[in-house]
Amino acid sequence: MTPPGKQLMRAIVCRAWADYASLPLEAVPRPAMRPRGVRIAIRAAGVSFATTLITSGQHQTKPPLPFTPGTEVAGVVTECAPGVTRVRPGDRVCAAPEWGGHAEEVVALEHNVFPIPIELPFAGAVQFPLSYGTAYGALAWRADLAAGETLLVFGAGGAVGLAAVEVGKALGARVIACVGSAEKAAVARAHGADQALVGPPETLRDEIRQIAGTRGVDVVFDPVGGAAFEVGMRVAAAHARLVVIGFASGTRPMVPANILLVKNIDVIGFYFGRYIWDGIVPRLPWDDRVAATFTQLFQWYEAGLLKPTASLRFPLEQYREAMASVVARRGIGKVVLEMTANSSSPAMDG
């Protein structure tokens, strides 16, 4: 948190499209207030694979240069623009700014700021804006997952995959989780997975079929792409819904139209940013629907159905190590940057 009266803060700065690890940590001016803005002293910020795509210019979202990356934060409100009613100074919140989160402060728009339960730690709260928001939107809004259906989750050891396991169980589904290690399998089961399979996606098709039975899988949640998408198509039931979340494998799959035809499968794309970052204010009906989603998610958290996990936490100055752990898939759940409540003079890093 930037001390009162201090005009500079520490932030990671992207001045040209580049690898995240090459970006410097600099002393920069605090962000200016904006209409409908909420200033947040950041206590935790999420690190994700998508961040590497954004800073290198490979993501569909391209902030104006220069910018500070980071789209999921949690912290304390310190200032509100006139007319803001959702929160007030002193509130503990999580938020999904379009960028700016890998810093000591950010100014987010009110519709992307959500008060959090008092008992929810900041490192857990930072997972709600995008990881849980994506999981809920993909499964409840787009796939219309119903109680009793079978849900297959690829990448279930990561933040969004683990969130999908929990949201799927909260919606009443039977969940099959696919992960890369026995440790991640144990975590997936602890978070509600009925079955957890270990190995590369291309090696798991027969095991998935054995578990799912002759009917197959009703919904596939795929943040991995590549071989995972291909396996998902093969094990899908008739009238299944395969939700494409991302391409963590680095491979964007081609859709085999013949399988769509024979099985009557729906392939559905889901990008949560479409509902929170399109710049339209007011944003009805999405603002109301997004707000209702977070009300439901926090109710599930308070009921013990959601257990956000941050296995790796780093101070802001170790942002390179944090991203390296994401790329190497060492983390379970979310990898988090943590800011101290009161920073000393800004560190400079070339």
What is the CATH homology-level superfamily of the largest domain?
A: Medium-chain alcohol dehydrogenases, catalytic domain
The level 1 CATH classification of the largest domain is: Alpha Beta
Counting helices, strands and paired strands, the structural category is alpha/beta
How confident is the prediction overall: mean pLDDT? 91
How many strand units? 15
Instruction: Characterize the biggest β-sheet.
Output: 7 strands, mixed
CATH architecture of the largest domain: Alpha-Beta Complex
Fraction of residues in helices?
25-40%
CA gyration radius, whole angstroms:
20 Å
How far apart the termini lie comes to: 22 Å
Count the DSSP helices: 11
Percentage of residues in DSSP E strands: 15-25%
CATH topology term of the largest domain: Quinone Oxidoreductase, Chain A, domain 1
Please state the overall shape, judged from the principal axes of the Cα atoms: globular
Count of individual domains: 2
- The string of secondary-structure elements, in order, is EEEHEEEEHHEHEHEHEHEHEHHEHE
Could you name the ranges where pLDDT drops below 50 across 5 or more consecutive residues? 342-350
Structure description:
This protein is of the alpha/beta class and 350 residues long. It has 2 domains: 151 residues, Quinone Oxidoreductase, Chain A, domain 1, CATH 3.90.180.10; 139 residues, Medium-chain alcohol dehydrogenases, catalytic domain (Quinone Oxidoreductase, Chain A, domain 1, Alpha-Beta Complex), CATH 3.90.180.10. The chain is 29% helix and 23% strand. It is built from 11 helices and 15 strands. Strand 12, helix 8 and strand 13 form a beta-alpha-beta unit. The longest helix is centred in the last third of the chain and has 17 residues.
